[in-house]
């Protein structure tokens, strides 16, 4: 099956100050599916430090006029943009499938992205300061004002969802932005650049760069004119960005990082539902999800039954070409990710018992079968580190105290779940689990649409997702004290 977007028609250039630009330094994109189809990938423009400077300068000069527009005027661009994204859904789905292997049949990112821009098109008025008469002789107030230039660095696993979650709130409250996409999945962001232009955003308001982390990502993190930066990706890179922020201008940073999410399944739970939810959590996007349920703890009395249910559901996937309508399990994003997951699988075979999968699929493509390990010691590396593949560990427990301790024995804290019909136990775990989101009788990717999302401990700093909270992230606060004669 030939890809619908031909290499010649794919946008690969940088988008700075409202214009597309190609530069002389290129990266070759590693793409599984294009290689599978015998088509070699087009080359992409790689942003240099100079390009970053120009994009930030364009954003800086566009910012005062953008902030001076009314909420409705800014929102009108968002509405046009959202409509164009919806109209491009099919093309965006194809680009993501050929870029990082997300199955086209399951693609929802573009619609979610459009929905977010639609929502924020009318949300700007919700951001207000406060006033106070509590200091005699003064009227005091706070003003909420945009930072100026905001940077966003996004990963490759759900690129357009991350793009929308960061860019829409930042722009809605009057900042201008420079986005850097991931070198592993740059094509949808390049396409989005053409839609930014078509929607008529003023030049410089929304700049989009492609390139590697150590060049343009590092330049944005240490840039003196970038006042806030929102990042999603690995904990390792999150640390590097925090250091760069500290060593440059102390820009405010928001970090959405990795996870090693536990689920605690008690004998009184609906095991059928628990098995279905948990395998779905780790199977979706071939395990390449920050909040995926990777550590399953099941009560020993029902372990055998649960593992049987889990196995039968988890292995029933259709692995293959992500462009094919029947596929629900695509390849890992690239060779680096594939090799990394396979390295963990070999490690896991030594640390625990392989109960399902553990192998690749013959032929081309970075395909890995759904894999289960059981009986792995809690302190094993594969129980501690983020694998980012279709690999799950299932261990058993006998008491509440034991499983609470095991679930929390991690440096991560993004998502945790409990399955039980006992309301007291459910709430005890809702309180006791150390994570930014706790699911009761449900697990990731379940989220409250209007609830904040983010990590405890090494899983991050700050929250996004909830409209009011996220817009607030991108606003400075100023106190004004007015001396009055009464
Ligand atoms: P990464 O964290 O290195 O990349 C994410 C983004 O950060 C990309 O846009 C990248 O270009 C940029 N970046 C890399 N180094 C940078 C630097 N020094 N300064 C500024 N930006 C930089 O993650 P990568 O290499 O794509 O994946 C490796 C692992 O990270 C995965 O196996 C997974 O465990 C984890 N990861 C977690 C994600 C999540 O959703 N929490 C998303 C992507 C990766
Ligand atoms: Mg990296």
TrEMBL record:
It catalyses: an aldehyde + NAD(+) + H2O = a carboxylate + NADH + 2 H(+). GO terms for molecular function: aldehyde dehydrogenase (NAD+) activity. Pfam families: Aldedh. Keywords: Oxidoreductase. Gene3D superfamilies: Aldehyde Dehydrogenase, Chain A, domain 1, Aldehyde Dehydrogenase, Chain A, domain 2. Residues 37-480 form the Aldehyde dehydrogenase domain. Its EC number is 1.2.1.3. PROSITE patterns: ALDEHYDE_DEHYDR_GLU. The active site is at 256. Belongs to the aldehyde dehydrogenase family. This is aldehyde dehydrogenase (NAD(+)). It comes from Lachnellula suecica.
């Amino acid at each position: 099956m030939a890809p619908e977007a031909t290499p010649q028609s794919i946008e690969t250039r940088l988008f700075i100050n409202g214009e597309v630009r190609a530069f002389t330094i290129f990266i070759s994109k590693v793409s599984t599916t294009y290689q599978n189809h015998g088509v070699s990938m087009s080359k992409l423009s790689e942003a240099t430090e100079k390009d970053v400077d120009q994009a930030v300068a364009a954003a800086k000069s566009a910012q005062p006029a953008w902030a001076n527009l009314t909420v409705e005027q800014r929102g009108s661009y968002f509405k046009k943009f959202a409509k164009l994204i919806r109209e491009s859904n099919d093309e965006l789905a194809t680009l993501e499938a050929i870029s990082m292997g997300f199955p086209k049949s399951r693609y929802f990112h573009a619609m979610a992205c459009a929905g977010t821009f639609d929502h924020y098109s009318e949300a700007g008025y919700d951001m207000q300061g406060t006033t106070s008469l509590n200091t005699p002789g003064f009227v005091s107030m706070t003003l909420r004002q945009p930072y100026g230039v905001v940077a966003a660095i996004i990963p490759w696993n759900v690129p357009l969802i991350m793009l929308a979650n960061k860019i829409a709130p930042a722009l809605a409250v009057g900042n201008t932005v420079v986005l850097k996409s991931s070198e592993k999945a740059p094509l949808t962001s390049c396409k989005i650049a053409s839609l930014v232009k078509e929607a008529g955003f003023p030049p410089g308001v929304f700049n989009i760069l492609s390139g590697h982390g150590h060049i343009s990502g590092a330049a944005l993190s240490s840039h003196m004119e970038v006042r806030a930066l929102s990042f999603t990706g690995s904990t390792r890179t999150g640390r590097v960005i925090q250091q760069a922020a500290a060593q440059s201008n102390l820009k405010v940073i928001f970090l959405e990082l990795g996870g090693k999410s536990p689920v605690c399944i008690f004998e009184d739970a609906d095991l059928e539902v628990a098995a279905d939810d948990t395998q779905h959590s780790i199977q979706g996007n071939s395990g390449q999800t920050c909040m995926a349920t990777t550590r399953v703890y099941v009560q020993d009395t029902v372990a055998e039954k649960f593992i049987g249910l889990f196995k039968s559901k988890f292995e029933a996937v259709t692995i293959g070409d992500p462009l094919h309508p029947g596929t629900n399990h695509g390849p890992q994003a690239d060779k680096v990710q594939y090799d990394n997951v396979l390295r963990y699988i070999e490690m896991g075979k030594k640390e625990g018992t392989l109960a399902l999968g553990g192998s690749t699929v013959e032929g081309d493509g970075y395909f890995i079968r759904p894999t289960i390990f059981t009986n792995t010691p809690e302190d094993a590396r594969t129980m501690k580190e983020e694998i980012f593949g279709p690999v799950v560990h299932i261990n058993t427990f006998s008491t509440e105290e034991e499983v609470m301790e095991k679930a929390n024995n991690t440096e991560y804290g993004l998502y945790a779940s409990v399955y039980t019909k006992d309301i007291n136990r459910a709430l005890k775990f809702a309180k006791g689990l150390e994570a930014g989101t706790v699911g009761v009788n449900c697990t990731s990717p379940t989220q409250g649409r209007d609830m904040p999302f983010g990590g405890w401990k090494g899983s991050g700093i700050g929250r996004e997702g909830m409209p009011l909270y996220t817009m607030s992230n991108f606003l400075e606060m100023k106190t004004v004290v007015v001396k009055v004669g009464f």
